[in-house]
C-alpha cells in the first residue's frame, strides 16, 4: 500500500496509503473507497481538455442527498429562475448564471455543516438520516449547482405568453399559461433522457462549458500546494474574481458610456450613412470601441469556454453576415431594402411605416386574410431578414454536418443499445451508481405530450394549436435534438 497520499479536501475522508497499517484489517467500505479513489492513472479521456480538467477518481461513500443539498438546491433554482425571468424583460437583459450560485452556496453549505445538529433521526431504520452528515463536500456542491442550472435559463414558452398578452392584448388564463410553460419545460427532460446514450455517455460529447465549472469545483474544494513562483487554482480564482469585480465598476457604474463608443456617429451626428455604419444600436457598429466584457463577448456568449475552432467559425460567420451580406443586400436595394432601416427587429409596411398587426387579426385572434390583402404584406429590415434566412440555412447545415462527421458514430451508438460497448473512464465511474431507467424518461415524454394535446384541444379557443400541431412540433424536435445536441456538446455553440 506504499504510495502517494491523496491531497483532496473536498469534504470526504482523505485516503493515505502511507499511513495504512497492513496489520490492521481493512473494512469492505474502506477497501472499496481506496480502490476507486486510486483509480487507473494511465486511463484518461481521449479528449485532451477533459483529461486535463476532470479527475479519474471517485468516492462513492460521500453523502449526496443531504438536507442542506435539498435546501440550497431548491432555493438556488427558485431564485435564479425568478431573477433571470424578471430581468429578461429589460432592454439589456441581465443574466445570473449558475456559476454565481456555485460560488454563493459554498459558504452557505459550510456554514450549515458547522452549525446544524448532527443528531440522527429514525436511528436504526432504513429511513435514518441526519441534518448534518459531515463536512460539506463536492458532490453536494455539484448537485446544488445542477439545481441552479435548471432554473438559470429563461423559459422559452414565456415568449408566447408575453407576446399574446403584451402585443396582442389577448386574454390567456393563468392555468393555461402555466400548462404551456410546464409542458414545454418537462418535454425537454424527456428528450434529454432518451438521447442520453448519444449525448452524455460517449467520450466525444465533452460539453466544453461544463469544464469551466469542473475547474471551479476543484479550485474550491481541493487542497493544492502552491508551486514556487506560482499560484494555486484557488488563489488564481480569487485574483481574477477581484480584478473582474473591480474592473466592471467602470463600465457598469462609473462610466456606462464606455460600454459602446460610436466615434463615427460623434463625428457625423447628422449623417444617416454614418449612423447606419457606426451605430451599435441601429446600425452595423463599425469602428465601435467597447471595453465592457459583456459587449465584447455578446455575439459568442463565453469565448473562454469554447474551443478555438468554434470561436473562429462563429467570428467568421458573424463578420460575413454582418459586414458582407447585409450591407450588400441593403445598398443594392434588394427587395426595396432601402425603404426600411438596415437594422431593426420591427415589422414594416411597403412604405416603411411600422406594421400594425392588430389590423390583420380578427376578434377570435385569427388571421383576417381579407384585411391582410387590403393592408399589405409584411416587410422586414435587411438584417432581420438575413438572420432569419441564415437561421433556417443553419438548421439544414446542422443535419448535413452531423451526418457527415458523426453519422457512423451515431449508428454504432444506436446499435450498442442492444449490446455492451467500450466506454471511457468517466462513464465507467458513473456506472458504479444505479442509473435512472430510460423507461422513466419515456413515460415523462409520452405523458407530457399527452398533456400538451389535452391542453391544446380543451383550451383551443386560447391556444389555437390543433393536436396535430403538437405532434408535428415533437417530430421536429426529435429530428433536430440529436444534431444540435452533438454540435453543442463538441463546440459549446
UniProtKB/TrEMBL annotation:
| Protein's UniProt keywords contain Membrane | yes
Keyword Transferase applies: no
Pfam families from the xrefs? OPT (PF03169)
Give the UniProt entry's GO cellular component terms: membrane
Residues annotated as region Disordered? 1-47
Question: Which NCBIfam families would you find in this protein's record?
Answer: OPT_sfam (TIGR00728)
The protein's name in its UniProt record: Oligopeptide transporter 7
| Organism listed in the record | Taxus chinensis
